[in-house]
Specification:
heterodimer; A: alpha/beta; Rossmann fold; Coagulation Factor XIII, Chain A, domain 1; 2 domains; 8 helices
């Protein structure tokens, strides 16, 4: 794995020219009279679809891109796929890119699935022999049997999409760009797609995923980028970014003008988190714990407007964004009755069996629908120490029991 | 990445790198055109054959025309029409090839220069399939003693090369411009109809009575391309160095202008198409 991330965007802006009749006519006149076609378009003309996006996607990492319609998600994907060029800023993409933007786009209806698969594969950057070698795998994955030699126009829409997906994923891309495609196809096919995407993740493919299915983003993505009107609102661990988006949607639906608070803490302030701390077994706030110790996280809150619909939650993440644990009162079966006075709530862990390392805590209080009163990302950090540097994130109490091999144990 | 290669080392290198894909797309184009037809590829032969038969009938019995060139007029007309039909057919298709392949440009990131190249090559194949009809006509005519069979026909590649280079260049320029200005297709259609009469196809160059008009026809860039072609294929005479030079200059200039336009507009094609 190289050190440079496969996808690297820096201060990317994308401006589309307006394609109105008048715009076209004036551009034709301008092109003929003043040679404007050759010059860079004037700043300020057209529609700014993306404004100042920075993003890295590492090898094997999956980043979800969420946001309302028209927020620039698809434009971002097309920039990464190399279909569009940024107006300003840089887009660096290393290795083979495959774009799953519209499955089977460009299939010619009159020729066979086999020939279409070969042509599509070559467009994705494979050589003819590479495609031919992978053709059995493509046919197998698409599951269209002897129909492969029939003209594509005879295919059902499901077969069409399956063949398109099959060609795209057997290209074994270094960078995969996915736009909302898993919404098509039946349940079984969706599972095979997810399965294949998981395989690519393990292979080290950097994946950029656009979806309105927030559950899927939480499930598949390590991190997420929330775009609104072309501007990045938040980049961070997928659950936090999804929560932020849900909160904004909920507050918009509630009629409150969505405040576009940038940063790692948001909410309408009806209830605020005053303190978030980690406590050891004797209820002392600590920043360092031994693996397997009892611990608790305490949220001290203040109520400005009494609430009847509220959920408290926490999430523990690793520094690289990987989720470790997350829960909330709703998930664990607590029903809200009333929240009218300041107070505190804590979540107790009988044994916090984490591998050694540094961890970050998100804490939130929000409505059941996701409208945030106060959502604080990375509000607390703590370190777990252990006698041995176990890798991973989970460090259960354990013992080796040699029955047969002769071994001695060093005293620690 | 494949989408960026043209920035680095030019259109031609990019086309060369994509040759496998271009070949497949040309095959697809030809296959798709005749898929489902009863006669299949025979249509490529039949179309020009019918055209030649109609010309032969009309100009032999309806309007008996005699060319001053020593070959029957229908053959003279046909040998001039073949390169012209290649040229005009390619350019008209080039004006719509990028919008037609919009999904591939917008959704699959296929290098756009592939498509005009496919158009040119598909028309070249049709052209080469029509050639045997001309040859057969010539063999029959020569057997009847109405003309001598021109052995200069072996030099055909040297007439096709400048034609191919020039048409490819203009096709690239037209394809890119037509994405931005959809009117270009209609303008081109009318323009080609006009230019047709300014190329010595239905008349020999020497038959123009007005010297001014003759100069206009000679200045037409398509004239040396067609002249060179017909001289070698049908008339059996080696054109003078001026025709050769003119054809070479036209080819190089057309390629340079067309590929420059295409290169400048290349980045804007996917988002505009």
């Amino acid at each position: 794995m190289s050190s440079a991330p496969p996808v690297r965007l820096r201060q990317v802006r994308k401006r589309y020219p307006m394609l109105t009749r008048r715009g076209r006519l004036s551009s034709l006149k301008g092109a003929l009279l003043h040679g404007e076609l050759w010059r860079a378009r004037k700043e300020g003309e057209g529609f700014l679809a993306l404004d100042g996006v920075d993003l890295d996607v590492g090898a094997g990492e999956t980043v979800g891109v969420i946001g309302p319609n028209g927020s620039g998600k698809s434009t971002l994907l097309k920039l990464v796929a190399g279909i569009l060029k940024p107006t300003t800023g840089t887009v660096d993409v290393g290795g083979r890119v495959t774009a799953l933007i519209e499955l089977g786009a460009g299939f010619h209806p009159e020729i066979s699935g086999r020939e279409n698969a070969v042509i599509n594969g070559m467009m994705l950057g494979l050589s003819r022999s590479e495609v031919l070698r992978r053709l059995p795998a493509i046919i197998d994955f698409a599951g269209i049997g002897e129909f492969i030699d029939e003209p594509v126009k005879t295919y059902s829409s499901g077969m069409y999409v399956r063949l398109g997906f099959a060609v795209a994923v057997v290209a074994e891309p270094d960078v995969l760009v996915v736009d909302e495609i898993l919404a098509v196809g039946d349940e079984r096919f969706a599972h095979r797609c997810l399965d294949r995407i998981a395989q690519l993740q393990r292979r080290g493919t950097a994946i950029l995923l656009v979806s309105h299915d927030l559950g899927m983003v939480e499930q598949l993505a390590h991190r997420a980028l929330y775009l609104s009107s072309g501007k990045p609102v938040l980049v961070g661990s997928a659950p936090a970014v999804v929560a932020r988006y849900r909160s904004d949607v909920a507050s918009e639906e509630a009629g409150a003008p969505a405040e576009r608070q940038l940063g790692r803490r948001w909410g309408n302030g009806a209830v605020t988190l005053e303190t978030v701390e980690l406590l050891d077994a004797s209820d002392h706030p600590v920043r360092l714990l031994s693996s397997g110790e009892a611990a608790a996280i305490r949220l001290v809150f203040r109520v400005r407007e009494p609430q009847h619909d509220f959920v408290f939650g926490i999430a523990i993440n690793r520094e690289d964004g990987a989720q470790v644990f997350g829960s909330n009162t709703q998930l664990d079966g607590w029903h809200p009755e009333e929240l009218s006075v300041d107070g505190e709530i804590r979540i107790n862990f009988a044994r916090l069996e984490l591998a050694p390392g540094r961890y970050l805590v998100d804490a939130a209080v929000h409505t059941a629908a996701g409208l945030a009163f106060d959502y604080a990302c990375e509000v607390l950090s703590f370190t777990i120490a252990a006698p041995v540097g176990w890798p991973g994130i989970y460090a259960p109490a354990h013992d080796w029991v040699p029955a047969g091999p002769v071994m001695t144990r060093s005293r620690r | 990445m494949s989408a960026n290669v043209a920035d680095r080392d030019g259109l031609f290198a990019s086309l060369y790198r994509q040759r496998g894909l271009i070949g497949l797309l040309v095959a697809r184009e030809l296959k798709a055109r005749y898929r489902g037809t009863f006669l299949g590829y025979l249509w490529s032969l039949l179309n020009p054959l019918l055209l030649l038969a109609v010309y032969a009938a009309v100009f032999t019995w309806v309007i008996p025309a005699r060319g001053a060139t020593g070959v029957p007029y229908p053959l003279f007309l046909f040998a001039g029409l073949l390169p012209w039909l290649f040229l005009s057919g390619t350019l008209l298709d080039a004006a719509v090839v990028l919008p037609d392949n919009g999904p591939l440009l917008k959704k699959v990131m296929c290098p756009p220069e592939v498509f005009p190249a496919v158009t040119v090559l598909a028309h070249l194949v049709h052209h080469l399939l029509a050639l045997p009809v001309l040859l057969a006509g010539m063999v029959v005519t020569a057997a009847l003693g109405l003309m001598r069979f021109p052995w200069t026909i072996v030099l055909l590649p040297f007439a096709l090369l400048p034609l191919l280079v020039a048409v490819t260049g203009v096709a690239l320029g037209v394809a890119a411009l037509a994405v931005h200005f959809r009117d270009l297709k209609d303008i081109l259609h009318n323009l080609l109809t006009l230019i047709f009469f300014l190329v010595p196809i239905i008349y020999p160059l020497d038959a123009i009575p007005l010297s001014l008009l003759k100069r206009v026809v000679k200045a037409n860039p398509a004239t040396p391309l067609v002249e060179l072609y017909r001289d070698l294929v049908l008339l059996g005479r080696l054109p003078g160095p001026r025709v050769w030079l003119a054809a070479a200059v036209v080819a190089v200039v057309c390629w340079l202008i067309g590929s420059t336009i295409f290169g400048r507009l290349r980045e804007t094609l996917a988002e505009t198409v």
